[in-house]
Amino acid sequence: xxxxxxxxxxxxxxxxxxxxxxxxxxxxxxxxxxxxxxxxxxxxxxxxxxxxxxxxxxxxxxxxxxxxxxxxxxxxxxxxxxxxxxxxxxxxxxxxxxxxxx
Length: 102
Known about the structure:
Mean pLDDT: 93
Helix content: 25-40%
Distance between the termini: 30 Å
Structural class: alpha+beta
CATH class: Alpha Beta
Shape: globular
CATH topology: Gyrase A, domain 2
Number of domains: 1
Number of helices: 3
């Protein structure tokens, strides 16, 4: 399986559970919502996510609202979720930074 090979939703759901990812699946998108302590903390978190994503060459959609950051990841070129999304999710989870809110 190549990193950009499309995964079935059942495989993605199992991987989320098995890997303990702090994300949920919404259709063919992985979603993580974080609440940070302040707006500057949210900006710093987004900066860290951006640097990590750039290094991986795989970028989530990012929405920031005051202290809340929502990340959405899918592999557009594959038309859904791939191992790239799961790997990005795990690397972002390792950043820590706030409380998960779904």
